[in-house]
Each structure stands twice: as C-alpha cells, then as structure tokens.
Design brief:
This protein has helices at 5-9, 58-77, 84-87, 127-144, 162-175, 185-193, 200-206, 246-257, 275-289, 295-299, 304-322, 334-351, 353-364, and strands at residues 18-23, 31-37, 45-50, 101-102, 108-113, 213-215, 224-226, 232-235, 242-244. It is an alpha+beta fold and 366 residues long. The termini are far apart. The chain binds adenosine-5'-diphosphate (ADP), 2-acetamido-2-deoxy-1-O-phosphono-alpha-D-glucopyranose (GN1) and magnesium ion.
C-alpha cells in the first residue's frame, strides 16, 4: 500500500478502530478511500488525499467547506426529522482541531463520515431520479443563500470562465507540449466555431443582469447522493462551492443527468440528451427556485447545458493536448474520448434547443 491509511486515519478524532481502507467512487480529482471500522455501532468514513495541484490553497479550501457544512447543519437542525449525518457532509477534526492534515510527504488529507445507504449514479435512467437531483441542487442553493460572513474563497479562479478556458486551450495548442495538437484539429474546429455564442452568460454577468450567488459548480450527477428510495439525500463534493451563476449548476447537472450515455462514451451514436430527463430535472430544480430566480436567470437556463457541456469539452481537450495533467485518466486517449463525447452531446442539445426553451417556459407558466 502506497499510503499508510491506518496511520493517517489515526490523526482524526473518531473513537473508532480502523479495519480496512480501499479506493472508492469514480471522482476525477482526489484519491478517495472508504475506511471501514470495527464495531457495528461505529461510523465508516471517507478519507481523501486532496489534489493540491488542482486546489492550490488547501487551508482556504477547507475553510470554505467548514463554513458551508456548518451552515447546512444549522439549517437542517431546524427541520424536524432531518438526518444530519446523511443529509450533510460531516468533516472530522484532527487532534489539533483542524479539518485536514499534511503528512510527512506533503500530502493533504481530510476525513468525512461515510453516508450510509446512499445511491450514486453516473448515468440516470429514470425521470424520478432526475427530478430528485434537481430538487437537491435547488434546495442546496436556497439553503446557502444566506451564508453569513465574507464571500467564500474562489478555490479555482475563473473555474467556469469560458473566455479563460478558451484562452488556455489556444495557449496549449500553440505550445503543443506533447505533439498532439495536429491530431485534434477536427475537435478544435468544432470548439472555435462556437466561441462567440458561448460568452453570453459572462456578458449577462458583466451587464449586471444575472447575480453571482453561492453555487456548487460541480453538479455532476454522481455528486448528488440519493437514498435507498432514490429520493434526494445529500449534495457532496463541496470543493468548488463559491460565487457563481446558477447556470453553471443547472448546465452541469443536465450534462450528466440527461445524457443517455456515459461521460466518456466511445460509441458516439449512443450519446444524446434525453428531453424527458431534461424536463424532469428542470421541474425538480424549479420547484425549489422559481421564486428566487430573476427573469434573465430563467431566460438563459435552457442555454446553460450547452455552455457547460462545451466548457467541459474544452477542458478535456485542453488536458489531452497538455499531456493529461489535470483529470485522472484510465487509458491513453481517455481525455480525447471524453472531449469527443461531450462535443457530440453539445450537438444533441443544439438539435433540441427549441424544445428545451419551450419546456422551461411551460414549467414556469404553470
Ligand atoms: P472528486 O472531487 O474526486 O470527485 P468526491 O468528493 O466527489 O471527489 O468523492 C468521490 C466519490 O466518493 C463520490 O463520487 C462518492 O461516490 C464518494 N463519496 C465522497 N464523499 C462521500 C461520503 N461522505 N459518503 C459516501 N460517499 C462519498
Ligand atoms: C471533475 O471532482 P469531480 O470528478 O466530481 C471536475 C469537474 C468536471 C468533472 C468532469 C474540481 O469533477 O469540473 O466537470 O470532473 N472537478 C474539478 O467529469 O475540476
Ligand atoms: Mg466528485
């Protein structure tokens, strides 16, 4: 074993005895382990080695998550019947009363209570699940809307800023560090053709027509846990909770919840957006947020899945050309395969854009 998980676990105040630890989940960023403990009465845990190439300032990142989880648990404690340990992430403190440790090899680690009885989906196969996912994100945004204190730290500056992402793609193509740029001209052409129309959300922000709110910014469906009955349970992966536009959360959730295929599907004929799953997610989301969103936010909701799917395609392709330094990959062309699948999904959304707009309007007029 590369890391002494038992020793690392021992720095956190759990009162439980380590039994075993194994890699867990399918996140692209951190190394995530499930820690099983001795004794039925004890919780199990999620131990994460944090990716400090992606998140450059771990103390600030953790300070955001401490504030966000504290606020959520305060809210939940006022709701009768809520199950705080399952409906909100619980950070476990160290013996130094911090929410993370840095080991002797300069690895940063944190520990959460393992959320029991959850279900996590990479592909969504029913409108019921999509609806519940939408509710979970809507409620999450609503609960954080009155977070007291300073604005949250921007843990990754310009995370969804498409102008910056495109500049970074162009720079990487020009540097071409591993000689891959020429082989992906078809993909870069598809991206550059759509450049101008993708700037609309940033423009609306600059014009003051849409506000910055506290958003999650990584609402991939497997970051929304459902319970045994496939009801909304808990929103996890809080590393990118920071100021953002609601479109980022709506768009990223549709990108994953309404795609008929996997994010990295190699058979592109399988990739397409399911309009019923779109409708279900939108209904769940708007059931929680329609009172708070302003007219411009509502007007551009239908566009946002196109923007975010495009943005992730840009990011996967940039990472491929750069030599795979950001996302975890499982084979040589993985980032390229992901980028191609996401571009195909953008096309499918474009084909159905009129319907997407009609659906949002219809939900809002009922
Ligand atoms: P990444 O940023 O790498 O995606 P996540 O924080 O999303 O890391 O964790 C990776 C996976 O681990 C999640 O998709 C989920 O399956 C699982 N996971 C994370 N936290 C918990 C938790 N508290 N309880 C149960 N499972 C969890
Ligand atoms: C990463 O952390 P994870 O796997 O939930 C990434 C998201 C991408 C996603 C694509 C911090 O999400 O922005 O949309 O991969 N997270 C970060 O699957 O970059
Ligand atoms: Mg995740």
């Amino acid at each position: 074993m590369e890391h002494d998980l038992e020793k690392i676990f021992g720095h956190f105040v759990t009162g439980a005895k380590f039994r075993e630890g194994d890699l867990y989940g399918s996140g692209h960023i951190h190394d995530t382990y499930r820690i099983l403990t001795e004794g039925r009465e004890n919780d199990d845990y999620i131990l994460q080695r944090l990716n400090n190439k992606v998140f450059k300032d771990i103390p600030r990142l953790q300070s955001n998550i401490e504030r966000v989880t504290l606020h959520l648990r305060n809210k939940l404690s006022n709701i009768p019947g809520s199950d705080i340990k399952r409906e909100c992430l619980t950070l476990i403190p160290t013996y130094d009363n911090k929410s993370w440790i840095c080991d002797e090899k300069d690895n940063f680690w944190r520990l959460y209570i393992f959320i029991t009885g959850h279900r996590s989906y990479n592909i969504v196969d029913s409108t019921g699940k999509a609806f519940e996912g939408g509710k979970a994100i809507g409620r999450f945004q609503a609960m954080l809307s009155d977070l007291p204190g300073e604005p949250l730290h921007e843990t990754i500056p310009g995370f969804h800023d498409i102008e910056k992402r495109l500049a970074s793609l162009k720079d990487t193509v020009n540097r071409d560090p591993v000689g891959r740029a020429a082989s992906v001209k078809a993909e870069t052409d598809k991206i550059f053709r759509r450049e101008e129309e993708m700037k609309v959300i940033l423009k609306l922000g600059r014009e003051g027509r849409i506000p910055l709110r506290i958003t999650h910014n990584d609402t991939k469906f497997n970051n929304i846990l459902l319970d045994e009955n496939d009801r909304a349970l808990c929103v996890i992966d809080l590393d990118t909770v920071m100021p953002g536009y609601v479109h980022y959360d709506f768009g990223d959730a549709i990108r994953t919840a309404a795609n008929r295929a996997a994010e990295d599907e190699s058979n592109l004929s399988r990739v397409s957006m399911d309009i019923d799953l779109f409708k279900a997610y939108a209904s769940g989301y708007l059931s929680e947020t329609r009172q708070t969103l302003n007219p411009a936010e509502k007007e551009y909701l239908a566009f946002s899945p196109r923007l975010i799917t495009y943005t992730i395609a840009v990011r996967f392709l940039t990472d491929y050309i750069d030599g795979d330094n950001y996302f975890k990959i499982h084979h040589e062309n993985h980032n390229l395969q992901r980028a191609r699948a996401q571009l195909r999904l953008v096309e499918s959304m474009e084909e159905q854009y009129g319907q997407m707009q009609n659906i949002i309007e219809a939900i809002l007029s009922t």
